[in-house]
Amino acid sequence: MHSLQKFLLLIALFSSTVAFGQLTADPEDRREQGKDPLRTQTPEGRPLPFSQRLRFGGGINNLRFGNPFSIGVSPVIAYQTTERLLLGVGGTYAYTRYKAISNTGATVPFQTYNQYGGRVFAMYEFIPSILPNLYLHGEVENSSISVRNDQSGATGNYSLTAPLLGLTYSQPISGRFGINLTALYNLNYNQNQAVAQAIYGSPLVIRLSFF
């Protein structure tokens, strides 16, 4: 587990470094001609090479304070398939500390959750002439969760699959980098499932990411 955490941290650091480097490197920028930058072509109309269609980044997710307390990171690699379609993959790590509420007044120990997972997603800019940079967003996230009872030391392992649908608004900073605000609905959320309640909190998932 420790090696996986280090690996995810290295991916996040690498992605962030590349993403910030893209802030000043935008060879497709056509703003000087009063036009929007092209995402898959050069200004002369030639297809961009594979490497120039890639977007690297990530974000902080599962951020909650109180009970539960939760924080996570999610590195992302995305590919600009067409001018309007973006496909991507990402990793996920989240730490959660949660204390269930007892109806009987009995003392309930804290539990620690370590979530490791991956996701695939698609974003489609569906009404660019009316609301540019607004995307339909669909993804599937699969997670493995290790749960530890802080009092007894007992552990358990679970898995969750979450199909998510919603919208992303992307504010471009360069041709291959933007700030993204995402609101998704978890179609597989079960409020009676303790692990899902601790990890997601509700069927609504809000994310802020950079890629």
TrEMBL record:
Residues 27-38 have a biased composition (Basic and acidic residues). The keyword Signal applies. Keywords: Signal. It comes from the Bacteria. Residues 25-48 are annotated as: Disordered. The keyword Signal applies. Residues 1-21 form the signal peptide. This is Outer membrane protein beta-barrel domain-containing protein. It comes from Spirosoma rhododendri. The lineage of its organism: Bacteria, Pseudomonadati, Bacteroidota, Cytophagia, Cytophagales.
